[in-house]
Design a protein that fits this description.
heterodimer, A: 85 residues, Ubiquitin-like (UB roll), B: 627 residues, alpha+beta, Aldehyde Ferredoxin Oxidoreductase,  A, domain 1, Aldehyde Ferredoxin Oxidoreductase Protein, subunit A, domain 2, Aldehyde Ferredoxin Oxidoreductase Protein, subunit A, domain 3, 3 domains, binds iron/sulfur cluster
């Protein structure tokens, strides 16, 4: 089972990669943990940069409190509010 | 005359080169404010049904409102109204820059340009001398918007067209400074009149009812704006392109002619990326605006120019499967200088690519390949070769070549860069907005997809209500005339700081989503001025404006636009979305697209329209809409 995690611009900048390909992470909680782990000792940076973000699976907001089951090929993104036009 | 207005309409006839100043009608100003509202009233009254949008009978109306000419932030915008050559319905555009300020300084609320000149002409309006000079513009004809404005000099404020307008590209715009009234082909109407430029000057002072309160309040508000997370931070720092990563995560970023809602490398055309790679300056492109959302970039061979907006970055970027910002910058600059709407341009290019892919047209344009695009943009502006075809927009192209199912337009106006399959309220707004598939006539997506407090964008709850309220508000904003981005400031800082994962956030959105009639009721209340624009209007005009007043005025304008469209032959059947949007899904949990059919009847009912989308007589009577 493969999940793609798309990072926000700030997260990508901090980590040096734009996305992570995670294997064997069947729930959102596990994906989050694995993403945080990839920051190594910089876990606090991850926490700070994801403080006011929502979690999105394939474009749909998911609740972090639930152990949302994921499907093979799902795309998990961090969502920040923005204004454009 | 009500304070805040100059009290004059300048009526120019290009056919016999005459002009007259007429008084602004106070009753109309009370009912329609100014800008788009007053302009639509004039268009309705001045023209018989069925005129040729590119013929002499179509007046081109430049309209300011009571806030223009003041120092209110975001208030230097004018509206342009005419019959649209692209849609056949109401044509309107709004533009920043400095022209609105110039008109008001010249003591003019509204400029009507009628008829056509036989040869290229430009106007110089001197508001202090009450003079209009008709000057030969042959030397400027063929020049880009930048060169034209440079030739006209700095002493006046200008509104000009580029070659796209001259050559009647159906999505040509009107340019002031570095801003453009892009949508619905208002530039083609100006081109049809052989009117290259309008320059205006004057030193008249705008009279305000309570200048002291206005100034104190505005001073205080500027500080508030600076501290606001959107107006003072995000828009300032990233411009509107700061939204790319949000729409991409939401799966609503047009990609491959809206086939998809997500591009893996969209980050490369985001505001954050621009800030790190290639931003050379930040400046407010509209005078007196502290938000300064304009971004400066360098384009090779041209120099420092205004960078792309979100819509442009999305539609000339991922929508074409291009994520090299240098190309997007170049094409944006070309569109601006040639004077055409980059939204319609991006959608038209994407459509031509899909036609090529499906062997319906040998356009020579391919997704993901920048080759030939710059040349094609120039060809469109000059209507050369295949460019002549693309200059008519996707609706007409689909009638010639097929591909109607993936021709991304509503009423002939190409869709903006928010895919409604992941933003249902925005879809209803696109379908019903008088000028066609446009996002700034309500910006409903802010409450469901992009803003700090969003409800489920794919439930049916509140998806008919939000567009009604937002369209009404946008009509009022475009009649003051303010920048629509001002509405982003209505959500306070504290809300922006809420974590979407928190219980409080979920509770608020839960109740908001279920607020239905209560939501509409609250926005209709006429308690006291709350927002800054209600305050400003009150201080400027001396009349009290509240949310309820603005909803009523906006609703009136919206219904008048509707009556204009119906008069010109549009019907409820035009309140639709492209086939792709309704029937193809971009979300794995859904097997269809936007549920417009389920939402439209509710929308009509809330509007006080019948099942065919025609305003009921009692609705028109209640709103005092004369037809
Ligand atoms: S926010 Fe941007 S577009 Fe709006 S008035 Fe200010 S500079 Fe112009």
């Amino acid at each position: 089972m493969s999940i793609t995690v798309e990072l926000t611009y700030d997260l990508a900048k901090a980590l040096g990669v734009r996305r992570l390909e995670l294997e064997g992470t069947p729930t959102l909680r596990q994906v989050l943990q694995a993403t945080r782990d990839s920051f190594g000792t910089e876990g606090a940076t991850f926490d700070k940069l994801t403080r006011v973000t929502a979690l999105v699976v394939n474009g749909v907001i998911a609740s972090r409190s639930q152990d949302t089951p994921l499907q093979d090929g799902d795309r998990v993104s961090f969502l920040k509010a923005a204004a454009g036009g | 005359m009500i304070k805040g207005y100059a009290g004059r309409i300048l009526d120019v006839d290009l056919g016999n080169r005459s002009f007259a100043f007429r008084p602004l009608d106070e009753d109309t100003a009370r009912l329609y404010l100014g800008g788009k509202g007053y302009g639509t009233r004039l268009l309705y009254d001045l023209t018989p049904p069925g005129i040729d949008p590119l013929g002499p009978e179509n007046p081109l109306i430049f309209a300011t409102g009571p806030l223009n000419g003041s120092l209110a932030p975001q208030s230097n915008r004018f509206a342009v109204i005419c019959k649209s050559p692209l849609t056949g319905g109401i044509g309107s555009g709004a533009c920043g820059g400095s022209f609105a300020f110039g008109l008001k300084k010249a003591g003019i609320d509204i400029l009507i340009v009628r008829n056509q000149s036989a040869t290229p002409v430009r106007l110089e309006i001197d508001g202090d001398r009450d003079s209009v000079t008709f000057l030969d513009a042959s030397d400027l004809w063929g020049q880009g918007a930048r060169a034209t404005q440079a030739a006209l000099g700095k002493g006046r404020n200008h509104a000009v067209i580029g070659p796209a307008g001259e050559n009647l590209v159906l999505y040509a715009g009107i340019v002031s400074d570095e801003r453009i009234a892009g949508r619905t082909g208002v530039g083609a109407v100006m081109g049809s009149k052989h009117l290259k430029a309008v320059s205006v000057t004057g030193t008249r002072k705008l009279e305000l009812e309570d200048p002291e309160k206005f100034n104190d309040y505005t001073k205080w508000l500027r500080k508030l704006f600076r501290a606001h997370p959107v107006l003072g931070e995000k828009l300032r720092r990233y411009g509107t392109m700061g939204i790319v990563n949000t729409t991409n995560a939401r799966n609503i970023l047009p990609t491959r002619n809206f086939k998809l809602g997500h591009h893996p490398d969209a980050m490369d055309v985001s505001g954050e990326y621009l800030e790190d790679h290639g931003l050379v300056g930040v400046k407010s492109s509209c005078i007196h605006c502290p938000v300064a959302c304009g971004r400066e970039v360098t384009v090779e061979g041209v120099g420092r120019v205004k960078g792309p907006e979100y819509e442009t970055a999305a539609l000339l970027g991922p929508n074409l499967e291009i994520t090299d910002l240098r190309w997007v910058n170049e094409w944006n600059e070309l569109a601006d200088d040639l004077g055409m709407d980059s939204i319609s341009l991006g959608v038209t290019l994407g459509f031509a690519m899909e036609l090529q892919e499906k062997s319906l047209l040998q356009s020579g344009l391919t997704f993901g390949d920048a080759t030939g695009i710059s040349a094609m943009i120039r060809d469109i502006a000059h209507r050369r070769g295949l460019g002549n075809d693309l200059a008519d927009g996707v609706k007409r192209m689909s009638e010639r070549h097929g591909g109607a199912d993936f021709a991304m337009h509503v009423k002939g106006l190409e869709l903006s860069a928010y895919d409604p399959r992941g933003s249902y309220a925005q879809g209803v707004e696109y379908a019903t907005t008088s000028r066609g598939g446009c996002h700034v006539q309500g910006a409903s997506m802010y409450f469901e997809s992009t803003g700090p407090l969003t409800i489920d964008p794919q439930s049916l709850r509140l998806k008919a209500e939000i567009p009604v309220v937002q369209q009404n508000l946008a009509c009022a904003i475009n009649s003051m005339v303010l920048c629509i981005f001002t509405t982003y400031g209505m959500i306070p800082k504290q809300v922006h700081e809420l974590d979407p994962k928190s219980r409080l956030y979920r509770t608020i959105t839960y109740f908001f989503e279920r607020s239905g009639p209560m939501y509409r009721l609250i926005t209709k209340l006429k308690l006291r001025p709350l927002t800054w624009f209600e305050q400003w209007l009150t201080y400027v005009t001396g009349q009290t404006f509240t949310s309820g007043h603005l909803q009523e005025i906006g609703e009136r304008i919206f219904n008048l636009e509707r009556m204009y469209n119906l008069r010109e032959g549009l019907t409820g059947a035009d309140d639709t979305l492209p086939h792709r949007m309704r029937h193809e899904s971009t979300f794995p949990h859904l097997d269809s697209g936007h549920p417009l059919d389920q939402l439209l009847p509710t929308y009509y009912r809330i509007r006080g329209w019948d099942a065919r989308g025609v305003p009921l007589q009692r609705t028109l009577d209640r709103l005092k809409v004369r037809t």
